[in-house]
Please model this.
Amino acid sequence: MKRASMATVRAVILTLRPHQWVKNLFVAAPLVFAKHLVDAGYLWRAGLAVAAFCALSGAVYAINDVIDAEADRAHPTKRRRPIAAGQLGERAALMLAGGLVVAALGACLALSWQTAAWAGAYLAINLAYSLKLKQVAFVDVGLIASGFMTRVAAGGAAIAVAPSTWLLVCTGLLATFLALGKRAHELALAGREGRDAAATRAALAGYSRGWVRVAMLGLGLATAAAYLLYTIDDHTVAYFGTRELPWSAPFCVVGLTRFAWLALRDPRPDSPTDAMLRDAVFLLNLLAWAVVIVVIVY
Model:
């Protein structure tokens, strides 16, 4: 009985994908760039918003795995997901997702109705993605980018600080770049294994490896340029009272380049977004960027 309970707990944890919750740090971006990182009052509000979005994203993963269970069983790696493998029942997963959604939206509403509205928008975007729109090329990556921008907007609403236009632009470009990197990896992996990529993700029928690579290059350059322009913008300089922020731009370039390498190299079974969270070079560069930002801003 105890062993069965532990197996169920493990299946629940794997389904909620806690290793992916790092993406919800985008919710805290307005806190950092509004210079409130050391303000306890702002910190707990941002922390609650991040926790709420972790619960929401976990719920979305559970719902997505229920919807995709049949297709996942035909995928070389996704077939090991708990729902596809029969380790977690679909009804139990949906009940878990419902509880997480209620708790997350309640926490956001306690912060402000605007935070709850953005959280609701995030949930709606992801449900639309999971139910149908992830099968439509280009629309799928657009929705992924929208989800990241919604995170930033919710984080701003949680602390009553409107995120800058530059922050939203950089977030949208970066999220689209990451999403295309995942598509490039899926196309390459399917090609190497000699299978039809569209069999496991319908949207891939609308992409070509060459186009995706060119688009990634363009988006990577645009993201780096937008970040650099943000650091030298007159409003940014006046707000932070420093012209030192451009020193953080090289870390942005290194991070983008490293992710592109992970996405476009000889394809491995794990996705590049998973690989980057285990890649020492990427993580050390990210840490160095964060330290430089904190030192310059604070």
The mean pLDDT is 88. Residues 165-193 form the longest helix (29 residues).
